[in-house]
Every structure is written in C-alpha cells, then in structure tokens.
Design a protein that fits this description.
With about 140 residues, this protein is of the alpha+beta class. It has a 4-stranded antiparallel sheet with strand order 1-2-3-4. Helix 2 packs antiparallel against helix 3.
Length: about 140
C-alpha cells in the first residue's frame, strides 16, 4: 500500500508532462492554422498571412501557382505529425529575431515520404508568422 502511495505523485507528474508535451505551442498553433489554409487550397490567403520575409521573395500570384502545382503532385495531406522543432535566435542571413523551424510528416496521399519544413518568425507583437515553407 505504501509503495502505491509513493508511486502516485510520480505517475501524476508523468501524466502532466505528457499532456503538456501534447499541447501545441503558440508557434505550432500558428503553423497548423496556416497549413490548414494550404490544405483548403487558400494559397493566396496563406501568402497574405505569411511573414513579410516570405512575401518579399515571391509574389502572391507566383506563390499560388507554385503551391497549386505542388498540391497536384503530393495530393492532400493526411494527419500531420510533428517530427522536429528547433528554436533559433538571429540566424545568419536573416533579419534579427526569434525563429522556430518545424518539420512535419504530413502523410501526403501521393507522396507519403515527403516532409514539410516551416520556418516561423515572431513579429514585434509576439505573433508567429510563417517565413519559409519547404517540401523535402
């Protein structure tokens, strides 16, 4: 009986840590909401919500055409699984700031081995925006 009582706090702590790990961070929530726009074919809206860093590198029209072509090749995404999350501060070659690189396994219907890599940047108001999107 005493062993059971001693193990209970450890079990509760483990369950609390597992629940906290399962809760997406604000940056991950922003990334998933943005990816939802791609999943629905709202490529222009995804560009509108992206960080200025992404917008200055490609026009809205070229972005939409590029994503439409990629979607035709990969098919729809399944359930995304986060594989990697890496925080960066002031990366070389990019404007100063806080960044987060997320890698997802999206389970594309036509290309199940393809991964999505998103780079998010925190704006001055503390909101996370997608600054880069890559398939690999």
């Amino acid at each position: 009986m005493k062993k059971s009582l001693l193990l209970m706090p450890a079990l509760l702590l483990a369950l609390a840590l597992a629940a906290a790990a399962a809760e997406p961070s604000p940056a991950q929530q922003a990334a998933l909401a943005w990816l939802g726009l791609l999943d629905q074919g709202h490529y222009g809206r995804a560009w509108d919500q992206a960080a200025p860093l992404l917008q200055k590198n490609i026009t809205r029209q070229k972005w939409a055409a590029l994503l439409q072509g990629l979607a035709a090749k990969t098919g729809p995404a399944g359930q995304r699984k986060l594989l990697q999350s890496q925080a960066l501060s002031d990366p070389p070659g990019a404007p100063a700031g806080k960044y987060l690189v997320l890698v997802y396994a999206p389970g594309f219907a036509k290309s199940p081995a393809t991964l999505e890599q998103l780079t998010l940047r925190e704006d001055p108001q503390g909101q996370w925006q997608v600054a880069g999107y890559y398939l690999k």
